[in-house]
Amino acid sequence: DYFIQMLPSEIVFSVIDLLSFIVVIVAHKMNEMEGDVMYKKGDYVIKIPEGICKIEDIVYLDISHPNTHKKYYMLVPISEKSSKIYVPVDAAEKRIRTLISKEDAMKFIKLIPEIVEKDIPNEKLREQEYKAALLSGNQNQIVSVIKSIYTRKQERMEHGKKITATDDKYFKQAEDILYSELSFVLHIPKENMEQF
Questions:
Q1: What is the pLDDT of residues 37-82, one digit of tens each?
Q2: Is 69 helix (H, G, I), strand (E, B) or coil?
């Protein structure tokens, strides 16, 4: 279709001319496809809750309407390489973000002592607040949840009580999200991040 439109009427091509013409068209289509994307193939990004993902490809899919082609990032989580996640390019800003840089990770780690623990006065909203903080992907909010749960755990232990199931669940998730990204960019094993 595109090829036919580009052909002038009454012209004869040699095989080499024809192959060169096809290469130009393919390159044009590839540039067109990647022209309006924020990330490129091979980039690593954060997708919450899946964590760090590699952009394996940028593809067109016909999911909703057969006559519309929508561009998607094809993500593969580094923790589950058999999975594929498709994120629309035009919605990527809300769904994925760039990994923190090594320099910013070091600065962030130095600022952790200054981050205030999350204050949740309404006990009924506790799980909802935890979940919202984790889904935000914001490192400061995630650390504030970790600090809040840690304080609650210490208080409960002083009274001879165990950590609640909700606190335990979100503490582990928050640590996993935070440590995964920091260990990846700093090239430190995740199990060593707590001491770091």
A1: 799 999 999 998 889 999 999 998 876 665 567 899 999 999 898 9
A2: coil
From residue 111, give the alpha-carbon distance in Å to each of 23, 140, 179: 52, 9, 15
Cβ atoms 25, 3 nearer than 8 A: yes
State the pairing for strand pair 96-98/44-47: antiparallel
- Going from the C-alpha of 89 to that of each of 62, 84, 99, the distances in angstroms are 14, 15, 17
pTM for this structure? 0.73
Distances (CA, A) of 135 to 51, 93, 140: 10, 14, 12
